[in-house]
Specification:
- The chain is α/β, with parallel strands linked by helices and 251 residues long.
- The longest helix is centred in the middle third of the chain and has 29 residues.
- The chain contains nine helices and seven strands.
- The radius of gyration is 17 Å and the shape is globular.
- Strands 3-2-1-4-5-6-7 form a seven-stranded parallel sheet, with helices on both faces.
- The chain starts with 6 loop residues before the first strand and ends in a 6-residue tail after the last strand.
- It has a single domain, classed as NAD(P)-binding Rossmann-like Domain (Rossmann fold, 3-Layer(aba) Sandwich), CATH 3.40.50.720.
- The mean pLDDT is 95.
């Protein structure tokens, strides 16, 4: 098992891409901390379900509630994981939200919420997790960005800005910690099958698929496979990169 003995923290892992990543890492032998925030109904139950699936398959996992926008909650979460498992080898900054609207109609609250969760959250989780990685002189930081952060997208100025920030943040972290044998990379998914895309009208889905070379939505497991590779020893010489996984999107 390729990640046997490794410890990971996956934020926003109760559903969607985060869940797929947590299950994939666990399947490779990694101990997984499944982070969730209880703001949305069902997140705790969903996180507990992910943990139970991992344990049923013979793995180790724990569900941890923490609002990644809150410094003290992030600090406490990291300390709890290290207290139980002694270290953190892999951090996956996955948690993110959208509050879409055209810029002229976008409220300051919608802007601030997205930046706080998507960008500040990645900053806080990385900052507190890095201390463990630096002590052991090894680690993997993998942040989930988006093609919106590479190409921009109508109605998503806040989301695109946050994900572009994650990309620049990742490149800077890679430069800071590379000498400690710690890698930092960003994964930029395109249109992936999640609750958000499932709820789109058929006409919008059709328009989206016309821009995708493979003419289909991606699966959360597609993203999880890439994250697992970046978390492995096989990716030890890859850092400071943004890798798009979008089926060949052209706009």
């Amino acid at each position: 098992m390729e990640l046997e003995g490794k410890v990971s923290l996956v934020t926003g892992a109760s559903r969607g891409i985060g869940k797929a990543i947590a299950l994939k890492l666990a399947g490779l032998g990694c101990k997984v901390a499944v982070n969730y925030v209880a703001i949305e109904a069902g997140n705790k139950a969903d996180s507990d379900s992910v943990v139970q699936v991992i344990k049923h398959q013979g793995g180790e996992a724990m569900a941890i509630e923490a609002d990644i926008r809150n410094s003290e909650e992030v600090r406490s979460m990291v300390e709890q994981i290290i207290g139980v498992w002694g270290k953190i080898d892999i951090l996956v900054n996955n948690a993110g939200i959208t509050r879409d609207n055209l810029l002229l109609r976008m409220s300051e609250e919608a802007w601030d919420d997205v930046i706080a969760t998507n960008l500040r959250g990645a900053y806080l989780c990385t900052k507190f997790t890095l201390r463990s990685m630096i002590r052991q002189k090894s680690g993997r930081i993998i942040s989930i960005a988006s093609i919106a952060g590479v190409m921009g997208n109508v109605g998503q100025t806040n989301y695109a800005a946050s994900k572009a920030g994650v990309i620049a943040f990742t490149k800077s972290v890679a430069r800071e910690v590379g000498s400690r044998n710690i890698t930092a990379n960003a994964v930029a998914p395109g249109f992936i099958k999640t609750k958000m895309t499932e709820g789109l009208p058929d006409e919008i889905k059709k328009n989206i698929l016309s821009m995708v070379s493979l003419r289909r939505f991606g699966e959360p497991e597609d993203v999880a496979e890439l994250v697992a590779f970046l978390a492995s020893d096989k990716a030890g010489y890859i850092t400071g990169q943004v890798i798009c996984i979008d089926g060949g999107v052209s706009m």
